[in-house]
Amino acid sequence: MKIIFTLAAILISGTIAAQTFTFSGGSGTEFDPYLISNHADLNALNTMTNKGQTINRYYLLTKDLTEPYDGLIGTEASFNGHFDGGAHCITLNIDRTWDRYPAGLFGTVTHGSIRNLAVDGKVRIFKGAAIVGNPSGEAVFENLVNYADVIATDKSVLSGVGGVLGNIVALKKDKSGVTVKNCANFGTISCEGSTVGGVIGYSGQQQGNILHNLANYGHVDAMTQITPFGSRRVGGVVGNPLFEDKVHGLANFGTISNDSISGCIGNASPTDFGELFYDSQYSPTCFTIPSQARSTSRIIGYALKGELSDSAWLFEEEMFPRPKMNGMELSLRVKLYATPVILDEADRLDNITHPFKVVMRNGVTWQSENGRVRIANDGQTTLVSAGTDTLVARLGKYSRRLPIKVNLPTGINDIRTSSESEYNTWFTLTGIKLSGAPSTKGVYIHRGRKILVK
Q1: Smallest Cα–Cα separation from 143: which of 180, 108, 106?
Q2: CA distances (Å), 446 to each of 255, 348, 380, 398, in order?
Q3: Ramachandran angles phi, psi of 212, nearest 5°
Q4: Which one of 30, 304, 324, 417 counts the least CB within 10 Å of its CB?
Q5: HEC profile for the chain?
Q6: What's the rounded Cα separation, in Å, for the pair 184 and 320?
Q7: Cα separation of 173 and 203, whole Å?
Q8: What is the pLDDT of residue 227?
Q9: Distance of alpha carbon 205 from alpha carbon 276, whole angstroms
Q10: What is the predicted pLDDT for the residue at 448?
Q11: Cα first-last separation, the chain
Q12: How far apart are CA 21 and CA 62, in angstroms?
């Protein structure tokens, strides 16, 4: 049964005019938040936002909303409250290509917070992102996951398009910048403009922002451009961090459409950055600032433990690390995208010349769509024929498609078995490749794990 709440009473000419909103429960306080369980509740939140009445108000999503939602929260004003998704997912079907203002599930969020939320579905916009188009003014964003494909039509050099957040604006009048922690993108982000990233499109203006523990597992498809400042601004995780941004613990485990897209971040402007990684076999690029390129076998498992924060990232053998996102990192879909293909060290997804291994942990299965690769029960592969193919991974009701290109070697002597690939190669902690197993004591990297040799 619906509950009607009176939020404001205004004395006008001796009478009281009351504005009422309908939610599924709660009173809007921190310990008794308004409960959101359907589209009508989201629409009420939009109206409340447009009335400027979300300051210090709290909202809790109580379940997954699987029927596609085509609205936008904050069509006329910014959201200033605190929205907790409860680790639930909202399916979207947003089409706002006509709207030149950054769009998403939320339009502008100022001095508020969005936490513990996943979104899925389809998002067609001019600019923005799936979750928040225009984050601003000391807002906090934490534990956010995007599964939706985002298609943006803006072709300018300052598009500000991302999977989770679009165009972050932090001004000098704010006491501090925007905080973004432990967020991930799994969707395809497509835009012909610049300032595009898997997780965040643009971050900057006059106040530094905190960007910590962000990961992209999806695909970034953008036409990189030279901006008036002379730099490309498209990256696997963040397209354009600027000025005093604090950028730490970012990793791109996804793919990019061309080698002019930067592996992790698309601009070298931040003065406080570190622990930035990308998979050079998934996202081969000629433009990297200042990220560290690592092959898949040197990223998976426990290889980055100690470089990425143990408290903020989940490590599992033969898997890509995952940001801890209030339990959402344990979902089947996240596990699926974190399950890698381990190529020979000389190969990349668009140029496979040696047998490789697909990981089958957690019940993940793999199939070669065009039959150019034969996959054995243990995940080892045999190259059958040259040409393009798609590896399809499945876990439960979810699937992931990973395009590849097979180039068969010209001679029988060029063929190597997977046991000779990088998967079985030993490295020192500084990245030096060994010719065989180590002969001296120490800590080494082997099969994506740190190994102590005594």
Answers
A1: 180
A2: 24, 19, 18, 30
A3: -130, 135
A4: 30
A5: CCEEEEEEEEEECCEEEEEEEEECCCCCECCECEEECCHHHHHHHHHHHHCCCCCCCEEEECCCEEEEECCCECCCCCECCEEEEEEEEEEEEEEECCCCCCECCEEEEECCEEEEEEEEEEEEECCECCCEEEEECCCEEEEEEECCEEEECCCCCCCCECCCEEEEEECCCCCCCCEEEEEEECCEEEECCCCEECCEEEEEECCCCEEEEEEECCEEEECCCCCCCCCCCEECCEEEECCCCEEEEEEECCEECCCCCECCECCCCCCEEEEEEEECCCCCCCCCCCCEEECHHHCCCCCCECCECCCCEECCCCCCCEECCCCHHHCHHHHHHCCCEECCCCCECCEECCCCEECCHHHCEEEECCCCEEECCCCEEEECCCEEEEEEEEECCEEEEEEEEECCCCCHHHCCCHHHCHHHCEEECCCCECCCCCCCCEEEEECCEEEEEC
A6: 13
A7: 16
A8: 52
A9: 22
A10: 57
A11: 67
A12: 18
Buried b (16+ CB within 10 A) or exposed e, 355-387: bbbbbbeeebebebeeebbebeeebbbebeeee
Q: Could you tell me if 155 and 184 are in contact, meaning their C-beta atoms sit under 8 angstroms apart?
A: no
Beta pairing partners, 19: 8
Query: What's the half-sphere exposure (Cβ side, CA atoms, 13 Å) at 419?
Result: 1
Lookup: tokens for 223: 């036409």
Tracing tokens 């109206």 back to the chain, one arrives at 47
- pLDDT recorded at residue 271: 81
Mean pLDDT by 10 residues, the chain (454 residues): 38 40 93 97 96 96 97 94 98 94 94 96 96 92 98 90 92 79 98 92 85 98 62 86 90 93 85 93 85 93 95 97 98 98 96 97 96 96 96 97 90 43 61 73 69 75
- Amino acid code (one letter) for 373: V
pTM summary value = 0.86
252: tokens are: 């791109």
Closest listed residue to residue 355, CA positions, set 392, 300, 408, 433: 408
- The side-by-side arrangement of strands in the sheet containing 442-446 is 426-428, 442-446, 449-453
Whose tokens are 């690029």? That residue is 285
Phi, psi dihedral angles at 336 (to 5 degrees): -60, -50
Amino acid at 18: A
Are 177 and 138 in contact by the 8 Å Cβ rule? The answer is yes
In this structure, the strands spanning 341-342 and 357-358 are antiparallel
Which residue, among 76, 65, 132, 85, has the nearest Cα to 104 in the 3D structure? Answer: 132
Closest CA to 387 of 344, 346, 342, 352: 352
At 443 the pLDDT is 74
